[in-house]
Amino acid sequence: MPTMNNIPQRLTALREQMKKAGISAYIVPGTDPHNSEYMAAHWAEMQWISGFQGETGTAVITADQALLWTDSRYYLQAEQELKGTTVSLMRESDIDCPTIAQWLKQNVQGTVAVNAEMYTVNAFSSLREAISPLPLTTCDLIRPIWTDNRPDIPMNPLYVYQDCYAGESVESKLTRVRRVLKDEHAQALLIAALDEIGWLLNIRGTDVDYTPCVIGFALVEENRCTLFVDSRKVSKEDAATLQAQGITLSPYESIYDTLHEGKNTTVILDGNRVNEALYEALSEGNNKVKLISPCPVQKMMSIKNETEIQGERTAMIEDGVALTRFFRWLDQWQNKRDSDETELTLAARLHDYRAQGKHFTDESFCTIAGWNANGAIVHYHAEPDKCARIEGDGVLLLDSGGQYLDGTTDITRTVWIGDETKITDRLRRDYTLVMKGHIALARVRFPKGTRGNQLDILAHQYMWQEGITYGHGTGHGVGHFMGCHEGPANIRTDNNTNPIQEGNIFSDEPGIYRTGEYGIRTENLVLTVKAGSQHLPSSVYQPLSECTTGEQYYEFETLTLCFYDMRLLDLSMLTEDEKTWINAYHQRVYDTLAPRLSEDERQYLKEKCKLY
Question: Is 161:170 a contact under the CB 8 Å cutoff?
């Protein structure tokens, strides 16, 4: 990792490269060639050149200035890490902060350059339009100067993901993709997104944090499929399995030459997920590029098959057992306070409980444990030198998830720790407003073709009536033993044109955040199913009457299995239907988890799930 003392030298070296190339401004985003949510350290170019180690940021370097754009989540971290680097912080969440494009147009007169591998096709096109008339070109100016101690691209072995977990063979998936090629009058599909490659080829790995992906590219053609991956990552046995499935292996870096050498081929790709360098290699080879979004593989993988769905349900049981044991320990601890606990030690203890579960492999993201005021920081990340001790009375927001061979989980619970007489009326009101929105979305019915932004108001409605809102999305898609965040559909105020489909899994996570005081978020994962297909009490859903228009209707099956902290709930604010829903949910949590628990654990869970 860079130190503060050598950042100025690195900037000097970059500026020398810029001068030789005739570049006036060089942009270094915090991305990788696969547009990954979590990326390998090899591609941490923004962090290397600026000294800022946050996950989100973009550096801009000119002959006399170095600037780092990041959002409000990282202001404090950036201020500390940029000291002594000569890099200035640009607070992009502030109203008066110019965008990168605005700043460039005001302060630069020559050519702007980026590494084409680090920009998607659509992001590059948008940048070129935004900075016009400034010329935009592509070149890699970091590679020549980052020669010492640059981490290698991970060489972790891939493994074949068994059909008993995947629920569909590689041959079947490739057949479906080739039908799309025929419909699009194309000869090939280019894939750069690691989750899409892993799903399509039924392979998994440990190349990036939290998501079981393998670093590579894939090219699906009418009569062959090529996986571009370092051969050292593939055992002889797995190579034979892949070959038997019709997959040819080729070196990772050879993708660019392969695309450049192709002639007069129509290739489809997702401009939001494939990088500009790949697009340029295709274009230079006189190929016809057809941009589509979303990628057909992304659409396929978002619709879970029956094996994947059952696997998710199984993973939720493992997760629910771990959470029950963790919260039981937490309740016992708060009565004794016989050890020093911090946000990080709580996260570590939860990890240990999850690790006891069958098929557990990793967390699905870095656990967010926010004590009191830290819980009000959306996407808060505790650090060893500045995490909060759990002391006194207050609110703990705990957002966590696990990766199991049969499913991916993501859950948030907000709980009270300490003297219950100190729970304020406002806290209970806030918690109940969040719960009302959470329940409204969980029990909605809607016709086929509905988009997520049409449902989002259900989660916001009660807060909006009080003049309260939250800035994050209400629901993101979730993968199956894959990325915790998955497209193409979602549930948020933005107008996403991709409709919700049967088999989609989403989070349901409204929240309220009181700066300097506490944060509240309640999150379950829900599965999109045909309306009326769930075996639920009639008091939860009225029987589905005949649809006069002949449309198919959907509803959500709640997958997550963990009780709510009823001490924070103002029952007087709930309708009878809402109380019924909570009671039915708690009954299902108890009935499902109790057989896996000891007698003491069952008694604890029974008390937490008691009916109201």
Answer: no
| 475-477/225-228 β-pairing | unpaired
Residues 544, 486: Cα–Cα separation, whole Å: 30
> Contact 298/273 with Cβ under 8 angstroms?
yes
CA distance linking residue 543 with residue 539, whole number of Å: 9
Cα distances (angstroms) measured from residue 598 to each of 134, 321, 324, 496: 68, 11, 11, 46
Residue reference for tokens 């203890």: 349
Q: Quick one: fold of 4-138?
A: Creatine Amidinohydrolase; Chain A, domain 1 (3.40.350)
* Residues 150/36, Cβ–Cβ less than 8 Å: no
Distances (CA, A) of 317 to 561, 581, 591: 7, 20, 11
Same topology, domains 4-138 and 159-301? Answer is: yes
| Helix H or strand E segment including 59 | strand 58-62
| pLDDT tens digits along 560-577 | 999 999 999 999 999 999
In this prediction, residue 76 carries a pLDDT of 81
Select the CATH number that applies to the domain covering 306-575 from these four: 3.90.230.10, 1.20.120.80, 3.40.50.2300, 3.90.79.10.
3.90.230.10
| Residues 6 or more apart whose Cβ sits within 8 Å of residue 203 | 158, 159, 160, 161, 197, 214, 227, 242
CA 513 to chain CA centroid, Å, is: 21
pLDDT in tens, 440-456: 999 999 999 999 999 99
The C-alpha R_g of the chain, in whole angstroms, comes to: 25
Q: What is the pLDDT of residues 292-333, one digit of tens each?
A: 999 999 999 999 999 999 999 999 999 999 999 999 999 999
Map out the domains of the chain as residue ranges.
4-138, 159-301, 306-575
Collapse the DSSP code of 315 into the 3-class scheme (helix H, G, I; strand E, B; otherwise coil) and give the result. Answer: helix
Q: Which of 331, 363, 328 is nearest to 347 (CA)?
A: 363
- Is the domain 159-301 a CATH 3.20.20.70 member? no
